Amino acid sequence: MNEPKYWKISDFVEELRKNLDIPNIHINTVDGWFKRLENDRIHYINRTVETNEKIYDELDLKIAIFIKKKREDKWALGAISRELTNFTGLRPFPIKEEKPTPYVDNIEALKNQITAEVKKTFAELAATQMEELKNQYNQLLTTLPKQQSLEEQRTKRFEELMLQKKIERKLEEDAEKIWSELPETERLKKVGFFRKEIDFEKKSQFIRNYKNDHFESYLKSEMGLEI
Fold first, then answer.
1. How far is CA 69 from the centre of its chain?
2. Mean pLDDT over all residues of the chain?
3. 3-12, 37-46, 101-110, 131-140: least confidently modelled range
4. Mean pLDDT of 37-51
5. Contact 73, 80 (CB under 8 A)
6. Which helix (H) or strand (E) holds 117?
7. At what angle do helices 27-39 and 107-143 cross, to 10 degrees?
8. Could you give the angle at the alpha carbon of 135 between the alpha carbons of 37 and 32, nearest 5°?
9. Pairing between strand 188-191 and 46-47?
10. CA 2, CA 57: separation in Å to the nearest integer?
11. For residue 91, how many other CB atoms are within 10 A of its CB?
12. Any residues with CB less than 8 A from the CB of 220 and at least 6 apart, and which?
């Protein structure tokens, strides 16, 4: 029969890394998970009798693996805590013996003690949240597009210019063809009483309008986009 395994927090996190094959799980993150579970009275962490130091076992490891996988699936910690009761048995909190309330004759000392406890709790929560924010920031950095080199930017700009020139040539050719098929009454103008010639001003305006009206559709066609 295998002996039960117990770990202190640093060894526990190392064991978690081995099980998940993820080297960058921070100790503050894991510690924060279990502090939240205890603060919400969901799951208790065992302590040593001598020093009251937290000791983690295989049940805690099972819970940590579950939390990590759910976090990777973008679950909020509150939702994970609620789901834990359906996932596995949780360790109840020990029943405390009720002790008579000591007489307090120094209110100022009691205030100082409470203030110190509150500051300590806030510091622990801040460290956990800061680590989570750091991880989210690092994940965001990996999703950002890679910045192009100067050479890549020049190549892209050249390709864009060449594409623009190609489209403009095609538009002009098509406009010329359509213009040539128009009735003479639209293409020609009278010069004197007996002669007619091409109305170049009207032709230029026709080609400009055609290019402006159809540039977008030609560009989409060249890029294989839906029109």
1. 16
2. 84
3. 101-110
4. 93
5. no
6. helix 107-143
7. 130
8. 20
9. unpaired
10. 13
11. 16
12. 226, 227
Residue 27 structure tokens: 């100790």
**pLDDT tens, 143-174?**
767 777 888 888 888 888 888 888 888 888 89
Comparison of pLDDT for 55 and 100, the residue scoring more: 55
* Integer Cα distance of 175 and 173 in angstroms: 5
CA distances from 143 to 136, 150, 156 (A): 11, 21, 22
Cα separation values, 121 from 30, 34, 96, 219, Å: 16, 14, 21, 60
C-alpha separations of 48 from 34, 107, 162, 181 in Å: 16, 32, 74, 96
- Distance of CA 107 to CAs 113, 115, 227, Å? 10, 12, 78
**Burial group, residue 30, by CB count within 10 angstroms (0-12, 13-18, 19+):** buried
Partners of 197 in beta bridges: 189
Q: How far, in Å, CA of 79 to CA of 92, rounded? A: 20
At 178, list the tokens: 């359509």
